[in-house]
Amino acid sequence: MKVILDSVGPCPTAIDAHVVDETLARRRFVSLLRSHGHDAKAIRGELMSIGWHEKAAENAIAEIFDSKSISPQLHGRRVGPDLTRLPSRLDLGDRGASVQVRVHHPDLCLVGDFLSADECERLIADATPLLRRSLIIRADGVVDENGEEAYSRTSDQANFLPGASELVDAIQQRVSRFTGWPATHMENTQVVRYRPGADFGPHHDFFDPEAHRGLIDREGQRIATLILYLNTPPDGGVTTFTDIELEIYPQRGSAVYFAYPQQSPASLTMHSGAPLGSGEKWIATYFLRDRAISQH
């Protein structure tokens, strides 16, 4: 989406009139106000006086005033994939897909037909004999980086190394083509099964910048996630983005992508998997990192 921002008054509430991406323009605008000495309360009042919605103003202010926020983007650089100019129809190399929903804050999109029904069924069949209880890496960094079982994630999981099968490699390359991010910067393909009553409590996917400093220094930070829905659960299992009150209902073959170039609550990417009432829910997950990582 594009927007032309004209001058809205004397400096510091003025920006040169030119076409820029809407989200980036708004962030730069708030950053400019702050650079001229305005505090959060004053900026909020200024934004609302020129027609900003209260929630939009508060979100933009939270980003700029968060010390872990988006300074790289404000200087024209982005850490991670840039999907700001997605067409409605996608060429994924070996398959076409369609963008169905786009959100700019957080950076999120829902894509239909990312996988065929046959691919979903084959991936589930390949993963079934490899399933083990899912693990988590705790935010407090108390346990080792291999993770632990936890009540907050009650599911089973199978991991696939690169080269495990032609199907696994083809899907990973499709993810790479969609995001423009190299497969060498992705964690192994993870297929997860949820059964009735199973869920995954509210969480962020990035590593805690302080508690997991050693892991981040060696293997890099997570910067984006892509979830593939391998089936359509009959009851429950929605993916909920708590901060923006968005619910994604799983549909076989669809994908949801979301990025968090700033690893803090300001990313608005806290999400959860709601419990299933019946049946099973199957997903495949891809975590993108900011550098190449070892595959093991």
UniProtKB/TrEMBL annotation:
Domain Fe2OG dioxygenase: from-to ranges: 182-290
SMART domains: P4Hc
SUPFAM superfamilies documented for this protein: Clavaminate synthase-like
Annotated keywords: Dioxygenase, Iron, Metal-binding, Oxidoreductase, Vitamin C
InterPro entries attached to this UniProt entry: Oxoglu/Fe-dep_dioxygenase_dom (IPR005123), P4HA-like (IPR045054), Pro_4_hyd_alph (IPR006620), Pro_4_hyd_alph_FE2OG_OXY (IPR044862)
Entry GO MF terms: iron ion binding; L-ascorbic acid binding; procollagen-proline 4-dioxygenase activity
Cofactor: L-ascorbate
UniProt-listed Gene3D superfamilies: q2cbj1_9rhob like domain
PROSITE patterns attached to this UniProt entry: FE2OG_OXY
UniProt name for this protein: 2OG-Fe(II) oxygenase
